[in-house]
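Problem 12. The chain below contains 119 residues. Write out its predicted structure in C-alpha cell notation.
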Amino acid sequence: QVRLVESGGGLVQAGGSLRLSCAASGSFFSINAMGWYRQAPGKQRELVASITKNGTPNYANPVKGRFTISRDNALNTVYLQMNNLNAEDTAVYYCNCEAEFVGVLRVYWGQGTQVTVSS
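Solution.
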C-alpha cells in the first residue's frame, strides 16, 4: 500500500507561480513513473505532466514551457513547478504513481490539492 500526500496548492494571481510537492510512503519495492493530473469543475481529469523513474519528463501541451516536473528518488517525492499561471490552470491537482510490491504493479492517487488562479 502506498500513500501519496500532496502539498503546495493555494490561491495565486494570474502570472504567478506555485510549487506542488507529493511524497510517497508505505510498503513498496520501487516507484516507477510519477505524475500530476488535474480536474477542473465540470471537466474530466487530465494529465498535466509525468516523469519516469530515470527522470524523463512528459508534458501536456497546455503547460509546456510553463510547468516543470521533477523528482527526488531518495525522498520518493515528485514536484511540479508551475509558472506563469492563468485562470485555465484552476483545478484540483492530483499526484499519482505506479509502484511495485512483491511483483505486483499498482497505480496510486493522492487526495488532491486545490490550485486557484485569480485573473
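Discussion. The radius of gyration is 14 Å. Students who got a different answer should revisit the alignment rule from Section 12.3.
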